[in-house]
Amino acid sequence: MGTRGRGKVLVVVPAYNEAEAIAGVVASVTRAVPTADILVVDDGSCDATSAVARAAGARVATLPFNLGVGGAMRTGFRHAKREGYSAVVQVDGDGQHDPAFIPQLLAALEHHDVAVGARFAGTGDYVVRGPRRWAMRGLASGMSALMTTRLDDATSGFRACGPRAISVYAQHYPAEYLGDTLETLVIARKSGLTVTQVPVAMRHRNTGRPSHGSARSSVELLRAGCVVMLGLVREWPVIADSSP
Ligand SMILES: Nc1nc2c(ncn2[C@@H]2O[C@H](COP(=O)(O)OP(=O)(O)O)[C@@H](O)[C@H]2O)c(=O)[nH]1
Ligand SMILES: [Mg+2]
What we know:
alpha/beta, Spore Coat Polysaccharide Biosynthesis Protein SpsA, Chain A, 8 helices, binds guanosine-5'-diphosphate
């Protein structure tokens, strides 16, 4: 152990009951970024996620019980910090994120600490309808104002983080629903990290189940407003030097 990941990219794949999709995700990440290490964090799955991921060639951290996406990601960031990785990319285990965009996310880290892959910023045809769509729109303008940079898809989990963001997130990565996306952006801002977005295409889920249905998602997005407000009044670690 010790210096295994120094300077390298770690792709962290949070996975909860993704046995059907995970081998395909590991294979496509390997194709897109052959030099990166892949860590699948099996979030207390009841299926064969860990075994399938290991057979596909990934390193696997198996959590003893379900912690949610945020808990899985914090595990990934802690590992990255300890092993000295220079970048962490989150790619979901359900196959919705297209690893072909990883190089673009990484390129954005040259000038920023966090790069968010955005579904609605002009690439691809990912469509969300009904109240969820309006809630997401409202959220996008609120978050863009708050973060003082344009963020069309603040709830996207497809992201890349540089070394300063890894340090912050290894310590603080909320486990609540939407904490892993929205609140992590608020933490970035409060810690002096810079955030940007990169347009990506995203696929709809075709195996497994999403964490929340559409009606529930809308209610949760409203709850997100409160999450952001609370994130703003909490104390977060500050990175003194503001250049990445
Ligand atoms: N649903 C769910 N997904 C989890 C959990 N822990 C990790 N994940 C993984 O986190 C990623 C995002 O979850 P998903 O339900 O697709 O969220 P969505 O795409 O935002 O609707 C997937 O790769 C899941 O396998 C959990 O407790 N619940
Ligand atoms: Mg998903």
